[in-house]
Amino acid sequence: MSRIQELQAFDPDAVQLVARKVAAISGDARRALDICRFATEVVTSTKSSPKKKCKVLIGMEHVDIALQQMFSSPLVLAIRSSSNIAKLFFRGMLSEFMRTGSEETTLLRIHQ
Q: For residues 35-55, b (16+ Cβ closer than 10 Å) or e, as one string?
């Protein structure tokens, strides 16, 4: 996160918000970088004229929009609304992915 602050493209309060949200959810630095990347996409998509090269500071409102979009994706909503059995299966699958480093598994491996 300190590298992002060195760029002087982000408001320091926005960086703090990202760090706190990610620490509360997963603690995964990749997630924090994804949120920051998403916030920059929010800024570039809302700029009125793409020809102007004015420097825009990515602030709290951009990070907030990025957080809302990331955590309200159809995939996240589908997982949240799943049954407890399905969530248990997803946890087992994720555990197997983390253990093996592979993104493929079988039902037998998850069951074990």
A: bbebbeebbeeeeeeeeeeee
The pair of three-digit structure tokens given for residue 38, joined into one six-digit string:
């998403």
Examine the domain organization and report whether 99 and 54 are in the same domain. Answer: no
Predicted structure pTM score: 0.59
Quote the number of domains for the chain. 2
Q: What is the pLDDT of residue 64?
A: 92
- Domain encompassing residue 93: 73-111
According to DSSP, residue 10 is labeled B
Segments in the chain forming alpha helices (H): 2-6, 12-25, 29-46, 60-70, 74-80, 84-100, 107-111
